[in-house]
Design goal:
The complex is a heterodimer.
Chain A (H helix, E strand, L loop, with lengths): L3 E2 L4 E5 L4 E7 L4 E9 L6 E7 L4 E4 L2 E6 L4 E6 L8 E9 L2 E7 L3 E6 L1
Parallel strand pairs in A: 2-11
Antiparallel strand pairs in A: 1-3, 3-8, 4-5, 4-9, 6-7, 7-8, 9-10, 9-11
Chain B lengths: L3 E3 L3 E4 L5 E7 L5 E8 L3 E10 L2 E4 L6 E7 L2 E6 L8 E8 L8 E2 L3 E5 L1
Classes of the chains: A mainly beta, B mainly beta.
């Protein structure tokens, strides 16, 4: 029973264009969402987060959008760069279980030069 | 510069062996976590600890145990390794209060033959 789903295992975009990575969740108790980026042979690194009281958070080229009614969040990368090529995981935290993160299965992004 | 270190990057063990994976963090974080990452499944929580000598089962604790004798160190133990425990193991830590990102170590690629 996957509570956090990333339905696209891979995505390929041209350098300079927008990358949009999607994530769906089923549990309405989630109140905080995070995106992590992972390069091969390295641990995931935190990228950006959003609280459920917001619908948008922006940090440089990265923007996360949250649609609570649809239980959907997305990560936009504009403009995409070859160095963005990595696996991206979305994660969610429950308001009643602040220790635990529930991760999606990841989307592999390839940015073509 | 925050750091989570793991004792080995690559490990090869035989079925039935006892395996110890060590994790150390230098951020004085209360919470520490052990995940495994498998293709198509994302990161799944094995165990976590919110204080010295305290531990709680995650989503897939079977076949594993943990030890936290000091705040900075969290060990994952495979009592009798099996081939289905071949995986990437990731340690993480975060601070106790509020919405905090988890910091990850570089991972240990364990192969059980």
């Amino acid at each position: 029973d996957q509570q956090v789903k990333q339905n696209s295992p891979s995505l390929s975009v041209q350098e300079g264009r927008i990358s949009i990575l999607n994530c769906d969740y089923t549990n309405s108790m989630f109140d905080y969402f995070l995106w992590y980026k992972k390069y091969p042979a390295e641990g995931p690194t935190f990228l950006i987060s959003i609280s459920s009281i917001k619908d948008k958070n922006e940090d440089g080229r990265f923007t996360v959008f949250l649609n609570k009614s649809a239980k959907h969040l997305s990560l936009h990368i504009v403009p995409s760069q070859p160095g963005d090529s990595a696996v991206y995981f979305c994660a969610a935290r429950r308001m009643d279980s602040s220790y635990k993160l529930i991760f999606g299965s990841g989307t592999r992004l390839l940015v073509r030069p | 510069d925050v750091k989570v270190t793991q004792s080995s990057r690559y490990l090869v063990k035989r079925t039935g062996e006892k395996v110890f994976l060590e994790c150390v963090q230098d951020m004085d974080h209360e919470n520490m976590f052990w995940y495994r990452q498998d293709p198509g499944l994302g990161l799944r929580l094995i165990y976590f600890s919110y204080d010295v000598k305290m531990k709680e089962k995650g989503d897939i604790p079977e076949g594993y145990s943990v030890s936290r004798e000091k705040k900075e160190r969290f060990s994952l133990i495979l009592e009798s390794a099996s081939t289905n425990q071949t995986s990437m193991y990731l340690c993480a830590s975060d601070a106790l209060a509020g919405h905090n990102e988890q910091f990850f170590g570089p991972g240990t690629r364990l192969t059980v033959l």
